[in-house]
Each structure stands twice: as C-alpha cells, then as structure tokens.
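Example S7 (structure tokens).
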C-alpha cells in the first residue's frame, strides 16, 4: 500500500517478527524480534504438546495515532501449528493530520496451520490510517483468519468520520486468491445499501482450503443462529468467506467465533480451543 504526500509517517515506529517451528510433535516460538511498542506474551500450549502454540500480540500504548508505523511479520514454518490473537481491541485514534500505517504480513509454509484471530479494531472519529493484512500460503498449508472493524464508538455515541483504508489479501504460491480494498472516507459507505447498511461493525472471516459443500452449509447454519447480525457466506477458488454486519463488536465477534469453532475441526482436524483471553 503506497503512501501519499499527506500520509508521511511522523510517530512511533514499531516492528515485530515471529517465527514458529515444529520440534518433534510440538510447535515452538523459534524467533521473536521486536523494536518499539510491539511485543508478545509468553507463548503457551493450552491444547497440549501436540496442539497449536498460542501467542498474544501486545501493543502497550493501547492504540495507534497519526504518524505511527507498525509492521508485524509472522512466519509459520513447515508443519507448525500457531494461533495468534490479542488481549484487547486495537484502537486507531484521531489524527491531527499525519497518517498511521499498520502492515501485517503472515506467511504459512507447507503443512503449517495458522489461525489469525485478533480482537476488533476500533476506528475513532477523525482517524487517518491505512491497514494492510497480507497472507502468503504455500501449497498444502491451512489458514483461518478474521478481521473485525468498528467504525466510531457507538456505546459512547460517537459517529465515525475520518479517512481509513483497509486491505486484506490472500496469496498462494505467488498467485492471488483474495484481494480486497475498502475506503471509509466520511460516512457514505456506512449508510449505503451497497455498503454497511447503517451498521457500524463489520467482520470478515477467510478460511482455506475449503472444498466440501457441507462445510459451507455448516458455517451458514451456525451463523444463522445469531439473529442480531446480518451475515452471508460463500466459497471462491477454495476460499470460504464469511461476512458479518452488526451494531456491536461483541455480537459480530461471537458469530465469527462460532463459525471458527465449526471450521477448525473440518480444516485442521482439531477441536476448537478458544484462547483464554476471550473469556476475560
């Protein structure tokens, strides 16, 4: 995602690099490098020694302000199992002018399984930010990931207004599987019938590889139980995409979490084991 003259960085510069490796039957965090306000908690294995390595990403300042540049790079090595989440929502604060950039690059090697399940991102009124998430998949890898965006702060009565670019990309062996761009400039897209239809919270879940039709049916069935959200799911080129719209982050996240609980055993042959932090 390229920068424009109005989007020159002038704040925090933070980098975080994580690599997961398979050692026997166990997945370990083999490399951890960070600079600036990004780090992780100690990895742990709540599913037992053969389950996924769970890691929580931490951003101690609690949010991103204008001019910040944050780069996260995660590498799941061959046949590793990793689950990444965050202990709290990420906040994109009001900017006095400079643009903030958040780039998240995820690489999944052959036979590896990566779950990218961060807590919601809240965009404050007056935000100026660009967020790019790119996933590069090797043949034979598996991925389940979501992004949840709340525009404004509905519980505080703050309606969104700002400039926000969101990009979500899924690539396999150098070829694009899913390329998505969204620009939230002002409120037009929030209210439009072709946009968010008056909803301030949106969630997208992507999972691959999905080949069986009954997998899509199972996801649709579990999401249909959530009557307070609008949702739709489809498959394209082996990628299952689930869209959810709601008025509260909690209801959207619960719908996505239930879909993840259905998908995990079907795609990764492991029962769902929700991160403990979700219950706090």
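Recovered sequence:
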């Amino acid at each position: 995602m390229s920068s424009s003259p109005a989007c020159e960085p002038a704040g925090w510069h933070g980098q975080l690099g994580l690599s997961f490796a398979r050692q026997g039957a166990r997945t370990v965090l083999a490399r951890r490098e960070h600079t600036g306000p990004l780090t992780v908690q100690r990895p742990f294995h709540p599913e037992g020694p053969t389950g996924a390595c769970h890691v929580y990403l931490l951003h101690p300042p609690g949010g991103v302000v204008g001019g910040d540049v944050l780069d996260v790079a995660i590498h799941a090595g061959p046949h590793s199992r990793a689950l990444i989440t965050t202990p709290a929502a990420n906040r994109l604060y009001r900017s006095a002018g400079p643009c903030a950039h958040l780039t998240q690059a995820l690489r999944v090697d052959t036979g590896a399984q990566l779950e990218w399940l961060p807590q919601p991102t809240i965009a404050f009124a007056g935000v100026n930010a660009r967020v790019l998430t790119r996933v590069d998949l090797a043949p034979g890898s598996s991925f389940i990931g979501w992004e949840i965006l709340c525009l404004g702060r509905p519980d505080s009565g703050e309606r969104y207004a700002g400039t926000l670019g969101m990009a979500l990309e899924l690539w396999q062996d150098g070829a694009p599987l899913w390329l998505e761009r969204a620009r939230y400039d002002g409120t037009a897209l929030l209210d439009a019938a072709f946009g968010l239809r008056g909803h301030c919270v949106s969630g997208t879940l992507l999972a691959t590889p999905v080949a069986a039709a009954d997998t899509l049916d199972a996801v649709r069935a579990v999401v249909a139980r959530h009557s307070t959200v609008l949702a739709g799911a489809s498959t394209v080129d082996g990628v299952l995409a689930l869209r959810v719209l709601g008025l509260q982050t909690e209801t959207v996240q619960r719908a996505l979490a239930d879909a993840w609980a259905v998908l995990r055993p079907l795609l990764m042959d492991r029962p769902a084991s929700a991160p403990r932090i979700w219950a706090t």
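Notes on this example. The helical segments are 188-191, 213-223, 249-268.
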